Amino acid sequence: MGDLYALDFDGVLCDSCGESSLSAVKAAKVRWPSLFDGVDSTLEDWIVDQMHIVRPVVETGYENVLLVRLLLETRKPSIRKSSVSEGLTVEGILENWSKLKPVIIEEWGVQRDALIDLFGKVRDEWMEKDLPTWIGANRFYPGVPDALKFASSSIYIVTTKQSRFADALLRELAGVTIPPERIYGLGTGPKVEVLKQLQNKPEHRGLTLHFVEDRLATLKNVIKDPELDGWNLYLGDWGYNTQKERQEAASIPRIRILELSAFSKKLK
Hints:
alpha/beta; Rossmann fold; 2 domains; 6-stranded parallel sheet; two-stranded antiparallel sheet; 12 helices; 51% helix; 12% strand; SNARE binding; HAD-like_sf
């Protein structure tokens, strides 16, 4: 009958870590200007470097802005407003982000929705002012654009990124047009709910269902929901996950660890 692939975007199709880190620094400067007084380019570069290491913890883009401030607080004791930043390492962030996040949100008085709006606005302004450098701060993983162009399967994008950014990157950087109704971005509901919508569409009856994701936590949520037992689940080992997470995934029967070359072949 054919195959349906639901694909995560960041960490599966596109390495957007450079762009999201730079956008997060810009957004943090807008949100907390006084904290960045006296922050030189060396410290900013250090933050962006560390952001590549802690990227696996990010579920939704706005969390990048929280991470920028948290990393800054670990380096500048004078601006500390959170009880968790003293002595915190990147390993500590990787291990404990789900516990740290609610603490800093409360201690900094942050509104999640306001931060999502700000992060989107900063990216929109960057795209308007200088689209080539915004596009250039992202890269598709090798072989992915061609695999998407020549895919014989039904392709859907299921992402926590705002749809307009995924769409712009697909068109401008990968040269791929995916109809907007096939891109489920931030605001379309949790991924488990999107997968249910996809499997329940009459036109998808009889298709073999595949979900490719780079976050182990997301795949575990799918496994918890018996309604989604029909999905084949894959963890992309080239994406934003850690060695420890890949080892855990390998011990879970429902999850297959996928390499990039095998992924591109599957889509074709």
